[in-house]
Backbone:
C-alpha cells in the first residue's frame, strides 16, 4: 500500500502544476486587480495606487509573476499576501479552514447518521410503504436546490423561531468566557447549516445502500445461508448489511472532501466564516492571491480524498488489495 501512496503523491505533482498555470492565467485575464476597488476612494490618489502596483509587482509580465508566485510556494511555503485583509494568505485561510473543517465534520457525521439507517430500512422493506416514503424524501431532496432549501431553513429556524443564530461561528461573549461555553456556542452556530447540508447529502448514500441491499437479498450466498437455517437477523447483519456497507464506507474520504470544497453556498447563506465564504469574497474583491491559494488547496484535498477512499476500501474489505 505504501507504494500506491507514494505513486499517487508523485502523480499529484504534474496535476498541481497544470492547475497552477490555469489558475494564474484565469486570474491574469480577469479585469482589474486587488487595488481596483480603491480607485473610488478619494483618499487614495492614482499615483499612490500606481506606486503600490509597482511595489507589489502587479505591473510585471505575467510569466515573471507566475514564477515568483510558484517559487515562493515551493521554496518558502509562502502563498502570497492578501491585499484585502492586509495579512499573509495562509494566516487568513488558516482561521477560516478550522471553521470549515468542523462544519464539514459535523455535516458528515449527521449525513451518515441519517442516511445509513434510512438506506437499510428502505432496502430491507423495499417496495413497501416505508420504502416509498423514504423514496419520496430522496426525490424531494434531489429536486430541491441547495440555495432554496438553505434560505427556507434560515427563514423558519433562524428568523421566525429564532432557534439558531443566523450569522457567524461563535458569539463574542463565548470567546471571552472560553471553555464549555465557547464549545457550545460554536456547536449552536454549526447545527443549522450542518443539518441543511446533511439532509441534501444523504440522497446518494440512501439510494446506493438500498440498491445494494436489494441486490444482495437475491444473491446465491444469502439464499444458501437461509437454506441452512441461519436466522434472518444473522442473514441481514453478517451477510447483507456487511457487504452492502463496504462501498459506503470507502466513500467517506470523498464525502468529507466534497463537504470541505462544496460548502460555498451553505457558508454564504448562513454567513458562516469558512473557506467557502472567503472564496466568494476574495473573487469579488479581486484578491487573486487568496483565490489561487484556496483553489490549490481544494485540488490537493480532492486528490487526498481519492487516496483516503482507496485506503479505507482496502481496510474494510480484506479481499481488495491495492497493488
Residues:
Amino acid at each position: 500500500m505504501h507504494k500506491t501512496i507514494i505513486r499517487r503523491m508523485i502523480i499529484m505533482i504534474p496535476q498541481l502544476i497544470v492547475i497552477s498555470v490555469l489558475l494564474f492565467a484565469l486570474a491574469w485575464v480577469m479585469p482589474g486587480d486587488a487595488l481596483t476597488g480603491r480607485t473610488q476612494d478619494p483618499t487614495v490618489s492614482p499615483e499612490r495606487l500606481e506606486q503600490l502596483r509597482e511595489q507589489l509587482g502587479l505591473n510585471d509580465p505575467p510569466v515573471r509573476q507566475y514564477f515568483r508566485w510558484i517559487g515562493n510556494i515551493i521554496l518558502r511555503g509562502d502563498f502570497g499576501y492578501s491585499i484585502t485583509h492586509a495579512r499573509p494568505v495562509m494566516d487568513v485561510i488558516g482561521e477560516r479552514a478550522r471553521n470549515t473543517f468542523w462544519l464539514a465534520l459535523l455535516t458528515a457525521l449527521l449525513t451518515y447518521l441519517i442516511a445509513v439507517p434510512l438506506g437499510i430500512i428502505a432496502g430491507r422493506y423495499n417496495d413497501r410503504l416505508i420504502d416509498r416514503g423514504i423514496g419520496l424524501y430522496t426525490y424531494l431532496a434531489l429536486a430541491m436546490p441547495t440555495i432554496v432549501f438553505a434560505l427556507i431553513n434560515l427563514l423558519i429556524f433562524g428568523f421566525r423561531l429564532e432557534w439558531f443564530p443566523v450569522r457567524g461561528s461563535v458569539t463574542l461573549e463565548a470567546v471571552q468566557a472560553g471553555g464549555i461555553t465557547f464549545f457550545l456556542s460554536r456547536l449552536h452556530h454549526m447545527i443549522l447549516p450542518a443539518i441543511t447540508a446533511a439532509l441534501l447529502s444523504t440522497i446518494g448514500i440512501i439510494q446506493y445502500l438500498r440498491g445494494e441491499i436489494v441486490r444482495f437479498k437475491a444473491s446465491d450466498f444469502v439464499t444458501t445461508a437461509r437454506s441452512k437455517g441461519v436466522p434472518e437477523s444473522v442473514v441481514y447483519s453478517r451477510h447483507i448489511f456487511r457487504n452492502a456497507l463496504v462501498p459506503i464506507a470507502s466513500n467517506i474520504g470523498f464525502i468529507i472532501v466534497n463537504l470541505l470544497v462544496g460548502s460555498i453556498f451553505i457558508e454564504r447563506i448562513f454567513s458562516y466564516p469558512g473557506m467557502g465564504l472567503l472564496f466568494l469574497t476574495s473573487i469579488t474583491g479581486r484578491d487573486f492571491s487568496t483565490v489561487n491559494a484556496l483553489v490549490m488547496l481544494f485540488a490537493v484535498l480532492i486528490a487526498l480524498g481519492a487516496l483516503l477512499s482507496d485506503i479505507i476500501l482496502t481496510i474494510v474489505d480484506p479481499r481488495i488489495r491495492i497493488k
Summary: The chain has a mean pLDDT of 79.
